Amino acid sequence: MLPEAGSLWLLKLLRDIQLAQFYWPILEELNVTRPEHFDFVKPEDLDSIGMGRPAQRRLSEALKRLRSGPKSKNWVYKILGGFAPEHKEPTLPSQGPPHLPEPEGGLKCLIPEGAVCRRELLGSGCFGVVHRGLWTLPSGKSVPVAVKSLRVGPEGPVGTELGDFLREVSVMMNLEHPHVLRLHGLVLGQPLQMVMELAPLGSLHARLTAPAPTPPLPVALLFLFLRQLAGAMAYLGARGLVHRDLATRNLLLASARTIKVADFGLVRPLSGARGRYVMGGPRPIPYAWCAPESLRHGAFSSASDMWMFGVTLWEMFSGGEEPWAGVPPYLILQRLEDRARLPRPPLCSRTLYSLALRCWAPHPADRPSFTHLEELLQEAWPSEGCCVRDVTEPGALRMEPGDPITVIEGSSSFHSPDSTIWKGQNGRTFKVGSFPASAVTLADSGGLPATRPVHRGTPARGDQHPGSIDGDRKKANLWDVPPARGQRRNVPLERMKGGTECAWSHPPGVPGSTGSHQGRCGFSHPEPQGRPALPLE
Ligand code: ATP
């Protein structure tokens, strides 16, 4: 392929320093088309295209010669630098200080306005609308992307919205993780646009609540998603960031088996010895997902993200149900402080529920850390098996020889080790129910019929009762909440739509209720009767 006229300067520059072999990678992978784009290229980016450190130093010197005078910073650079998270990407190791410019951020690229064309609307959030789009690289190659455009009113963007938008950019441009949505670049046009990796299958919440004939998500896949989420959250935590908006609506499906954490509009850097972020003003927060200390003091930390992880887990195993549906926001805190907890969903094993309860420990220090989470998930991981005979007994989960079976749990194993009734999901029909253990061989049992309990973890507190699998809901009583007036437990999916998102807004009857997704934007804290929930700073 011939070099493009507009980037001949790059080819010349690279030829002069015997690095012409990096012309296409720099152009196509790092999207550098103008000298100033190097301001946003980090050493790690050059590492990623295979350029060694000595070559990087040569490039840096050549760039200095090319661009005489002091480095000019454009306004976006300045704004984004101001919002950069405290923990920066690691700098070059022992080979001496890097000579390449090292901006606080590291935009992959600034994308020319004409290079992105927007297609259909994917959705809208607080400060922008998201379209499917196509990004044409300098080489002419087209990449499907998602384009988030800053919503602009008649008098231009509102201050907070612009701030939130740029904060989201500044956070995302520093992140690179297989389960974190990738920012490709920024279009400095009217409106400002974020060009992001496209998650073609939409949000996990939409998938969880998709009506028939879409089959429910298999339990084993939900576990895989939990592990991916734990990895992404450990990554954010290691960078000193708190997400503050973890929920299935903000997990996007990049493929049928891959989720990506998205929506970084509420992300904040942690600070101080206590590793907390305390809200600096009245801002909307997702009540039903929040830890008590966030609701009472506006305090967020990795531990409050862990609480939200527990609620997200609950959503996943409840088929996308709305947590605390029908409970007014000001009562949620009261319930939590009275030690009420979301009940165990039918698909959730005791071991996994006990993990959720640990995420919801009243004291933040008692919650697990994201780095420890993978191990805990491993303990709760369901066994896989294969059906060896027809099961047609009334009330039992129907299965045929060869059906893949995910064993959710051996129901009464804690009390009668010889129990032979297990609970599981048939991977062919996606139905869940109990079945004789003898009908299934476990994948790791060497082909022998299953006769032992399969879970290694500790049973959930309040859940250590003898009884049938079908009594699951009852057994959560100790931690369960009395359903609030009007609380929906098994709400038809159609009615659920928007309900989850209403958690951001005032419930019906509370002044200021919008009853829509836009609730978070127009939200001011509901006045709890006699109990201040969040400081109005
Ligand atoms: P808010 O920003 O107010 O928290 P939100 O997360 O719904 O709300 P956006 O992040 O603006 O708002 O997303 C709006 C919609 O676009 C969502 O429904 C989301 O699922 C979809 N969406 C966002 N980013 C992508 C993407 N990269 N790929 C596919 N769909 C996306």
Description:
With 537 residues, the protein is of the alpha+beta class. It folds into four domains: 83 residues; 95 residues, 2-Layer Sandwich (Phosphorylase Kinase, domain 1); 176 residues, Transferase(Phosphotransferase) domain 1 (Transferase(Phosphotransferase), domain 1, Orthogonal Bundle); 60 residues, SH3 Domains (SH3 type barrels). Helix content is 28%, strand content 15%. It is built from 16 helices and 16 strands. The chain is globular. The C terminus is likely disordered. The protein binds adenosine-5'-triphosphate.
Strand order within the widest sheet? Answer: 1-2-3-5-4
- CATH structural fold name of the largest domain: Transferase(Phosphotransferase), domain 1
| Helix percentage range | 25-40%
Structural class: alpha+beta
What small molecules are bound in this structure?
adenosine-5'-triphosphate
End-to-end Cα distance, whole Å, is 58 Å
Number of helices: 16
How much strand?
15-25%
- Uncertain spans, ≥5 residues at pLDDT below 50? 69-75, 81-106, 411-417, 446-537
